[in-house]
Specification:
Blueprint lengths: L1 H29 L2 H6 L10 E4 L4 E3 L8 E7 L18 E7 L4 E3 L5 E6 L7 E2 L2 E4 L3 E4 L7 E8 L15 E8 L13 E2 L8 E4 L3 E8 L6 E6 L3
Antiparallel strand pairs: 1-6, 2-5, 3-4, 3-6, 7-8, 8-15, 9-14, 10-13, 10-15, 11-12, 11-14
């Protein structure tokens, strides 16, 4: 009988170890590492680095970066071929960008970009309004409370850039799933300065991102989000 208990205990311990090793695999399948870093459920693996004068398209490992969530600042006068940082000028910042193994950047000669681990600073509400002038991704319930918001877009058209009808100056506000599978999916939709909407309201729920992009607009442009209580 004593031996049976020992054998049972060994089997139970072995099964427990197996489950313990299986848990992170299941968690990563249900919610990948990137979203868990955004939620603060795991450590952000991003590092600090200034990348300059690389030339050509390079993956993040070739640039000496790790996967993670980054705040990015442009340190040179402009970037020529970096679509991720649309219309980037010196001093422009982009917050909460997820870089994975498939992410690439083209930092040419005379160009420089600073990468830092995302700070995820909570947005400050003044006069019952959240004002956002920096494009990027903001984590709901970590940086801005969930709820319904009235959206006002204040975009200043950049006069120095020639735009055709396919690339208008625009600011876009969107609500996205943290796992990246969907945007403008009926939970608030895409609100853009180039779209006509009768009700510019966005719904921000837990496990979602508030995503804001600027394209072809001047410094001083911003977005206002006013919480709705009804």
């Amino acid at each position: 009988m004593y031996k049976k208990w020992i054998i049972t205990a060994i089997i139970a311990c072995g099964f427990g170890v197996f489950l313990w090793q299986l848990v992170p695999i299941i968690k990563n399948h249900v919610m990948p590492e990137g979203p868990r870093q955004l939620l603060g459920q795991s450590k952000n693996t991003a590092i600090s680095s200034v990348i300059e004068n690389v030339g050509g398209v390079k993956g993040i490992t070739q640039l000496g970066l790790t996967t993670g969530i980054y705040d990015i600042t442009i340190k040179s006068d402009h970037l020529v071929n970096t679509p991720v940082l649309s219309d980037g000028q010196r001093g422009d910042r982009y917050l909460g960008l997820t870089l994975d193994r498939t992410t690439t950047f083209n930092v040419g000669q005379g160009e420089a970009v600073k990468f830092e681990p995302a700070e995820f600073k909570p947005l400050m509400k003044r006069n019952n309004v959240y004002t956002i002038s920096t494009p990027g991704n903001y984590v709901v319930n970590r940086q801005i409370p969930e709820g319904r918001y009235q959206v006002k877009i204040h975009d200043i058209k950049r006069q120095t850039i020639q735009r055709d009808k396919f690339r208008p100056a625009t600011i876009t506000v969107d609500s996205k799933f943290l796992n990246g599978n969907g945007s403008g999916d009926g939970q608030g939709g895409i609100i853009s300065s180039t779209l006509n909407r009768s009700s510019p309201i966005i719904l921000l729920e837990n496990h979602r991102l508030l995503s804001i992009t600027f394209s072809g607009v001047e410094h001083g442009s911003y977005v206002e989000l006013m919480p709705l209580t009804d």
